[in-house]
Amino acid sequence: MRFSRIFAINSLMLMGCGILMFIPWIIDAITQHHWLNPFSSAALITIIIGLTIFILSPKDQTPLRPKEMFITTTLMWLLFALFSAIPFYLPPHNLSLADAFFESMSGLTGTGATILTNLDSETPGILLWRSITQWLGGVGIIVVALIVLPTLQIGGMQLFATESSALSERIKPTMRQSIRDILIYFILLSLACALCLWLAGMTPFDAINHAMTTLSTGGFSTHDAGIMYFQESSILWTLTIFMILGGLPLVLGPHLFYRHWDMIHNNVQIATFFKILCVTILLLIPVVGYEQIKYIVFQTVSILTTTGFVSTPYSTWGTFATTLFLFLTAVGACTGSTSGGIKMFRFAIIGRILSSKMKSLIKPFAVFIPRYGTQIIDAEIASGVLFFLSLFFATFIIATLSLTALGLDYLTAVSGALSCVANVGPALGNIIGPERTYADLPEAAKWILSFVMLAGRLEFTSIVVLFLPFLWRKNT
Prior knowledge:
Strand order of the largest sheet: 1-2
């Protein structure tokens, strides 16, 4: 195991993280008139440690082996979360290590669960940093890794495969061209979202922050009331549109650029996404009332894309609505997007397998071959989906039992575990309900949920394999 090579790669990411901290540092220096603020110290600490590791690490240009890819991916996210937490840990915020790490991990994983309770009185720098971490977690870290690693003769696609299982969603041009197109598309979407939100009534600062957290389907806001602070219909509909775009595959942009209309028109999971979205809205309208249509659509899109924005206290909509949203929490949007959850790709696979099985029951002598688009769903694909679902629900069950062991009530434990494993954010109950934060949870619960968020974001495989003794054998 070449740990020196693994740390050298992660040191580059740390230096990039430290450089980005200069942005909120400058913002706070200008607005608060304090050039010495938490970000100045955090940036220097991160850059110095990253640079030191890089200098001390032996230079090895050979590609990483598969097991080293798993370790590199997990370590990258852990280090980013740890060093991104420094500004929350230092004065004047003085959060505990558990709180700071939870807030940072929630941002990087796009979960949006927060422990901060006085956002309206926070400095602009800390609010902007929260949004930046979500933007990075949504696509930035992955894109930077895929740009940097090929220059070091490392199989960037192998690293990407551990973060996203969307094998069918990869684009075929060269790696550099593919990443360039995705990055340009994501930046243009972010700029367009910020401009539209500004025109809809947000201040420029709020528009920039919410654009980053919307496209990354993260859900952090700049106000204690969250999106309920903004009651303009134009803002809610704008956020709804861009949440949907954030929940669609990022390769959609390059396909549009290269006019691959068939790749969009024939995309099974996009069709599945809109079907589930429409069915959920139609189910809620008779229960909640047609006059609440903008909130119904907004909240459904927010939960389904795992953004986690809350535009109204939907816990007052009744048992049916809250239960439906609880189940919808696990669904997620499209594979290849910035959202979490199980994702539409897997539901489409399961649906086609079940359809073929039902047909074979009616006509036992006929042969029905399940297909995803034009691709045959073979045993390997089916077992891969089953493997993911097993890890998803196993993590959810273990997290729920762990939270109840700490004394939390059943609703808080179940909704909190499901919300974090699916990277959604809002939960249910009197402690972490839709209008509340995670601040009142025990510190042990915050550590558990931080790990759960990371496992869900990396789709479990990169985490689980680290606990297998087989991985650490010399000859593997």
